[in-house]
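Now read the record:
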Amino acid sequence: MVQINVKPIVLRNVKVNIKSGATDVGDFEKALSQVELTPSSSTVSRKGLNPEAVFNFPGAETWVATLAYAQDWTAATSLSRYLFDNSGAEVVLTFLPNNGAAVSAANPAFRVTVTLQSGAVGGTVDSVAVGSVTLQCQGKPALITSLA
């Protein structure tokens, strides 16, 4: 068998951009502490009256984008404010896990349309107010090798 090498990534210098139609809303990685695109699927099962009559079928795959961020209500352009003001809107989210290198086959980015929702307001005494949202994705994220 062929030994497959692995090059794990560490999220240190990422880019997370949001576009609404042709409008570039901005890059939000300074506010974010987490961006994660996660798939899930269900299983459809059918059992007959014979022990050998068991059938399992994969369900349709769905994706969500989880964003964890520091709340900022002072800036009109903050992520907190953008989510609050645009709940329900569909936007394009682009995630580049390694912003220190050009987008390529060896350093891909991911792009997906998400539906925005408002995040938390407030938090715990003597700590940074944070929030987290889980945004529904419209289909599977596209793995892109060029930002052109």
Q: What stands out?
A: Residues 9 and 58 are 29 Å apart (CA to CA). Helices lie at 79-85. Residues 15-144 form a domain with the Elongation Factor Tu (Ef-tu); domain 3 fold (CATH 2.40.30). DSSP finds one helix and ten strands in the chain.
